[in-house]
């Protein structure tokens, strides 16, 4: 597609359940980012994939969070044993490294009840 | 590692007045700098970017920003704001190479334009 696509757009889950969020980047973009945005807050960096390099996982808040990316295509962010504090909008973005500009998806709004 | 500080969490301003949203960054290497805007209940979109060259960068909707390397700043300005400019504005920094290229955002500045 023309832009970054995220699914689902909304997800309500029970505390303790696992969730998987999906991101389809713009075709050809080598870099992919995940961010978390809590209500009224800024963007919290989670993880960054760049080509075939090892991902930068320095922003993942705990070992309940993990992410994978297959080549330069789809990425999934998995949150295990969800907690109420995980409630947020999870944003994905992709970019061509040489240009630096990141294009954002519309996000997945996760609500843990 | 890079970091970004947006000095004002909220900036109230009257319509047609000028505005400046402040951004300072920290980095040990050369950087790319960005301003993004998030309108209410919408996704982020790029306002403008500095990659290299002229330090004065013009973006969409009449916004501009100036890269000041000595002061490590990238302040966003608009000479006359409109009600429709009410939004959250984020400054961001990245370094151009390898795994240091992750994009780091400031905490955001809420611009409130009043009639």
Key descriptive features of the protein:
A: 113 residues, mainly beta, globular, B: 115 residues, 6-stranded mixed sheet, 4-stranded antiparallel sheet
In brief, what are we looking at here?
The complex is a heterodimer of chains A (about 110) and B (about 120). Chain A has about 110 residues and is mainly beta. Chain A has strands at about 5, 10-15, 20-25, 30-35, 45-50, 65-70, 75-80, 90-95, 105, 110.
Question: How many β-strand stretches of chain B?
Answer: 12
- State the helix count of chain A: 0
Low-confidence sequence ranges of chain A: none
Q: Give the percentage of residues in beta strands of chain B.
A: over 45%
| Distance separating the two termini of chain A | 33 Å
Give the radius of gyration of chain A: 13 Å
Give me the strand/helix succession of chain B. EEEEEEEEEEEE
Structure report:
The complex is a heterodimer of chains A (113) and B (115). Chain A is 0% helix and 46% strand. With 113 residues, chain A is mainly beta. In chain A, the strands form two sheets. In chain A, strands 2, 4, 5, 8, 9 and 10 form a six-stranded mixed β-sheet that branches. In chain A, 34% of the residues are buried. In chain B, strands 2, 5, 6, 10, 11 and 12 form a six-stranded mixed β-sheet that branches. Chain B starts with a strand and ends with a strand. Chain B has strands spanning 3-6, 10-14, 19-21, 23-26, 32-38, 44-50, 56-58, 64-68, 73-78, 87-94, 104-105, 109-114. Chain B is mostly beta strands. The interface between A and B is medium-sized, with 26 and 24 residues.
Summarize the helices and strands and which ones pair or pack.
The complex is a heterodimer of chains A (113) and B (115).
Chain A: E1 5-7, E2 10-13, E3 19-24, E4 31-37, E5 44-50, E6 65-69, E7 75-79, E8 88-95, E9 103-104, E10 108-112
Parallel strand pairs in A: 2-10
Antiparallel strand pairs in A: 1-3, 3-7, 4-5, 4-8, 6-7, 8-9, 8-10
Chain B: E1 3-6, E2 10-14, E3 19-21, E4 23-26, E5 32-38, E6 44-50, E7 56-58, E8 64-68, E9 73-78, E10 87-94, E11 104-105, E12 109-114
Parallel strand pairs in B: 2-12
Antiparallel strand pairs in B: 1-4, 3-9, 5-6, 5-10, 7-8, 8-9, 10-11, 10-12
